[in-house]
Design brief:
Number of strands: 4
Shape: elongated
Strand order of the largest sheet: 1-2
Structural class: mainly alpha
Number of helices: 21
Helix content: 55-70%
Order of helices and strands: HHHHHHHHEEHHHHEHHHEHHHHHH
Distance between the termini: 25 Å
Mean pLDDT: 91
Largest sheet: 2 strands, antiparallel
Length: 483
């Protein structure tokens, strides 16, 4: 805040992702304090490794850098950047100001991307580490929901038209399966992240080879040492000035895919045509300034809204990577400052919100039952025909009888707005008297759901529970949303 004036927060634009939606821990990861503190940590790791490999760097210089990792004068850094028009050099000078003895060896042999790109990779890795347990918790909550409602019949829909019955639990497994794929993809991309490492201006390590007087082994050891200090198992062998921006495409692609999954899940709840399931709505929530009876699925709608934003962000790294000419062009910088942070803050927000929704889903069995009754008579016609044939009737005669009665019942529903009375018409027709006593059994919804409940049980036991098991220690964490 300029001059510590709190009015500054009201007089300037702030991203709603940071000010309204995303978690404090994710916002901190992409904060200036974390970014520039990580720059200093990288400078320290470089100096420690260079000292170990024989460069004339003293313990006193190392200790001075260690003691000032958090002593960041942001005002001075801003003034230096305004003067130098270079953020890295501004912070080199700022760090050197509070480390006068070490000032001469800070950033020794490095280029700006040593701190810039390596910091980005550290933050991306740590951001994935925040998202993964959150996604696992969402999957776990929905798995509980699926297990609880594994046997509850509901209308299936194909082409958005009523189709063969399924169960509420089976439908939620469709959502869970997509989210499980997302969990696997996020894990893969996180684990595939490689450190840029210590590569120099155009990726040739020429400056470090000069520092170590042509000793290639020491340059390679330096790269490995800093990579290990940063907690990475591997570094790129080949880079230009930057790590390849294809990495950013991979990162935002899996986040965009997550956005698609979340949008699909929450759109189903918002639509509420399928299970008549509501997302949680606090008693005090006012859903309309004009219609006090309304209960809007506001958090589900928020998920859909932000998921669209998340899906669209992948276009930024796609276009950036396509125009990174030769060893590097700087047209990536401003774009990446925005899209990388926004992607993770958005993913964080929708997962927090989705967990909250999943913990409070409400199903209305009586409403589901009423909707099944409206459609089931038509779905049961084939079973009725088969029962009549078994009782000695003609399949063709029965089919024609059912066709006529079905058209009459459909006219009542469509033209008069009445209930589906096909079963009453069948009961009143003497032709069907051989199976009148079987009609109740033939219309049992559970006989129309196939192996849905068995599929739910097998899916949860064989695929879902093993996938989320590594996150068992954080499964009880609850999400409290202020909005």
């Amino acid at each position: 805040m300029a001059g510590g004036d709190s009015r500054y927060l009201l007089d300037t634009y702030r991203s709603p992702l940071a000010s309204r939606y995303a978690s404090p821990e994710m916002c901190f990861l992409f904060s200036d304090r974390n970014k520039f503190r990580t720059w200093r940590q990288l400078w320290l790791w470089l100096a420690e490794a260079e000292q170990t490999l024989g460069l004339p760097i003293t313990d006193e210089q190392i200790q001075e850098m260690k003691s000032n990792l958090d002593n960041i004068d942001f005002k001075m850094a801003a003034e230096e950047e305004k003067k130098l028009r270079h953020d890295v050099m501004a912070h080199v000078h700022t760090f050197g100001h509070c480390c006068p003895k070490a000032a001469g060896i800070i950033h020794l042999g490095a280029t700006s991307c040593y701190v810039g790109d390596n910091t980005d990779l550290i933050i991306l890795r740590n951001a994935f580490d925040l998202l993964l347990p959150k996604l696992a918790r969402v999957i776990s909550r929905l798995a509980d929901f699926a297990k609880e409602h594994a046997n509850l019949p509901t209308l299936g829909f194909t082409h958005f038209q009523p189709a063969q019955l399924t169960t509420v639990g089976k439908r939620s497994c469709l959502w869970i399966q997509d989210l499980c794929i997302d969990l696997q993809n996020l894990t893969r991309v996180r684990d595939d992240l490689r450190f840029r490492g210590v590569k120099g201006t155009t990726g040739t390590q020429a400056s470090f080879l000069q520092l170590f007087e042509g000793d290639h082994d020491k340059v390679e050891k330096l790269d490995r040492m800093v990579t290990e200090k940063a907690g990475f198992k591997r570094a790129f062998i080949i880079t230009g000035q930057t790590y390849t921006r294809k990495v950013d495409i991979e990162v935002l692609s899996v986040l965009a895919s997550l956005g698609a999954s979340v949008h699909k899940v929450r759109a189903a709840v918002v639509g509420a045509l399928v299970t008549r399931a509501d997302s949680p709505s606090p008693v005090s929530q006012s859903c309309s300034s004009a219609m006090p009876y309304k209960r809007n699925p506001m958090r589900s709608e928020r998920c859909c809204s932000l998921a669209r934003h998340l899906m669209g962000l992948v276009m930024d790294p796609l276009q950036t990577a396509s125009v990174q000419w030769f060893e590097r062009t700087l047209d990536d910088s401003a774009n990446r400052r925005i899209c990388l942070a926004e992607a993770f803050l958005t993913a964080d927000t929708i997962l927090n919100t989705l967990q909250n929704i999943s913990e409070g889903l409400v199903v209305y069995p009586k409403v589901i039952e009423r909707r099944i009754r409206q459609e089931l008579p038509f779905m049961a016609t084939e079973n009725i025909i088969m029962a009549m044939v078994k009782a000695g009737g003609s399949r063709q005669d029965c089919h024609e009888k059912i066709r006529v009665l079905s058209q009459q019942a459909a006219a009542v529903v469509k033209q008069e707005g009445g209930d589906n009375d096909l079963i009453e018409r069948i009961q009143a027709d003497a032709y069907f008297s051989p199976i009148h006593s079987q009609l109740e059994h033939l219309l049992d919804p559970s006989s129309f759901t196939g192996r849905a409940s068995q599929q739910v049980q097998r899916f949860l036991e064989e695929e879902v529970y093993p996938l989320v098991k590594p996150y068992a220690g954080v499964m009880e964490v609850k999400v409290e949303l202020s909005l």
